Amino acid sequence: MAAETRNQILLRLPQDECVRLRAQLEDVSLSFKQKIYEQGESIKFALFPESGVISLVKLLDDGNIVETATVGNEGMVGLPVVLGDGRALLRAFCQVPGRALRIRADALVAERRRGGQFGELLLRYANATLATLAQGVACNRAHSLEERMCRWLLMTHDRVGTDSFPLTQEFLAQMLGVRRPTVNIAGTSLQRAGLIRYSRGRITVVDRKGLEEASCECYAHIRDEITRSLGRYPRERKSKR
User: Fold this and answer.
1) Residue 38: CB partners within 8 Å, gap ≥ 6?
2) Is 12 in contact with 117 (CB distance < 8 Å)?
3) Domains, the chain, ordered by start
4) How confident is the model at residue 241 (pLDDT cuts 50, 70, 90)?
5) Chain Cα centroid distance, residue 46
6) What pTM was computed for the model?
7) What is the 3-state secondary structure (H, E, C) of 51-112?
């Protein structure tokens, strides 16, 4: 694996598995609203994001769309393949542009069946995903909109690797499960507090520490659970982070 990868799963691979896996990975760009796969269709490729954010949404029979999760460089997209079901349970598409490393679904299955650290990391990430979903459900029930918005902005900030990133109020409203005017009120409050700056579809994190203080505890719990589940970096790769 290239030493400059930002993906937190790939960073934890030992060198011998990196070399073998590198030949099967393709570097791809992710554009705004680019479809990764559709709900109900066969998953042909899995992605390991380097930057950007991919949204996973559930399409309901009445036409409504509910976001269930977002994925960045902490994980991978295409988890059903890892768990033995190649059918997409959700729609996946890019919300914040970036880059990813792509692998064919059949190649991913073959690598998982080989065992080794890669297969174990994929299962560990599946466990982290379950924990993240549970924390998100609790957060949506117990915490204020501003706290939840801070949590999401912090997670996005971690993923994109830059203070400024494109983000529409429409997407924020969908992600937070509220109406767009409500998101506008919360965003204005955070902007007046000097934590963020919003202009023409872009958000800039101005005060990272202040954003963490304004967030609920769920951001730290989710971050720590992913780190705990994936485990430590290999000793021989620590110097390359």
Assistant:
1) 88, 91
2) yes
3) 10-124 (2.60.120.10), 144-215 (1.10.10.10)
4) very low
5) 13
6) 0.88
7) CCEEEEEEECCCCCEEEEEEECCCCCECHHHHCCCCECCCEEEEEECEEEEEEEHHHHHHHH
Percentages (nearest 5) of helix, strand, coil residues in the chain: 45, 20, 30
Q: pLDDT value at position 15?
A: 87
215's CB contacts (< 8 A; 6+ apart) are 147, 150, 151, 154
**Rounded distance, CA 160 to CA 30, Å?**
12
Tell me: the pLDDT tens digits for 117-146?
999 999 999 999 999 989 988 988 899 989
- Other C-beta atoms lying within 10 Å of the C-beta of residue 39: 15
> Per the structure block, which two tokens stand in for 172?
């924020």
